[in-house]
Amino acid sequence: MTKEELAIVVKWLEDRHEYLHRQNLIIECGDDAPLTNGKGGLLDEIDREQQAIKISLNTAKEQLDEAH
To answer: Which residue from 46, 51, 53, 67 could staple onto 3, CB 3.0 to 4.6 Å apart?
Structure first.
């Protein structure tokens, strides 16, 4: 990938991570009991994706740093 492409990937991953964080907050703060209301699976899914995004983001940032 070119440096510009890596920068785009990093930005997208950062935005996606932030979006997932906001969704998690909306579910947790907007619902008194998300686990008992059947939203526990959704929270787990968001958490797994956030973890995967974080790993991918770290890798992309390392590659971008090396491209400089």
So the answer is: 67
Compute the Cα dihedral for 30, 15, 45, 52 and give only its sign: negative
Counting the structural domains of the chain, the total is: 1
Alpha helices in 31-67 (DSSP H): 40-67
- Domain of residue 41 covers 3-67
Q: Which residue has 């996606």 as its token pair?
A: 16
Structure tokens at 38: 């059947």
In this structure, are residues 10 and 61 in contact, taking their beta carbons and an 8 Å threshold?
yes
pLDDT digit string (tens) for 50-62?
999 999 999 999 9
